[in-house]
Specification:
The chain has 5 helices and 7 strands. It is globular and about 50 Å long.
Length: 183
């Protein structure tokens, strides 16, 4: 039976660093799921920094969709680190080709698609014989986004975080580099 550890917090709070420290304590055989897409130079720089900061011997998967499929092909991994769930949610939302037509039917389809991806991931993580660490931004503590897509993202990301926290064995909130265990 798999174990899930959820690490959340604000932007630049130290979430990823703390999650990597947890993963390193599990030994050498760690899998890393990078969910970002390099759309622009800033994201390319961020991805390069993350690559440089993590151990080179970790097996890396670069994907944001169908992340649950990695569990079928695990080798000797003792742990999986998924960074970052909110980036994954953002990419999945953009896959839905957002529209500004305001229909709740589209909103419902988008949320069902994204939560379906997360539920499949949680099921695979629980069924696997590894510890999975999931990193996500706590998006509900800041300003209300000024556009509909931003608010939709915030709402879905918040519900996704609730799903993951509920299924997790341990939950940490990282504040100013300090992890606080909340579950």
């Amino acid at each position: 039976m798999g174990r899930i550890i959820f690490v959340t917090g604000g932007a630049r709070s130290g979430k990823s660093r703390f999650a990597q420290q947890l993963a390193q304590r599990m030994g050498e055989h760690i899998g890393y799921v990078a969910t970002a897409i390099a759309f622009d130079d800033e994201m390319k720089d961020r991805i390069a920094k993350h690559k440089k900061d993590r151990p080179q011997n970790w097996k890396t998967w670069e994907r944001y969709k169908d992340v649950y499929k990695i569990y079928a092909g695990l080798d000797s991994q003792r742990g999986i680190l998924i960074d970052c769930i909110t980036v994954m949610v953002s990419n999945l939302l953009l896959d839905m080709q957002p529209t500004d037509d305001g229909t709740m039917a589209w909103v419902d389809r988008a949320e069902a698609y994204i939560t379906g991806q997360v539920q499949a991931l949680l099921k695979a993580a629980v069924e696997a014989d590894v510890t999975t660490i999931m990193v996500s931004n706590e998006v509900g503590l800041g300003l209300v986004p000024d556009n509909r897509l931003g608010r939709l993202f915030r709402d879905i990301a918040g519900r996704v975080n609730q799903l993951i926290a509920s299924a997790s064995h341990d939950v940490y909130l990282v504040v100013s580099g300090i992890p606080v265990k909340i579950k």
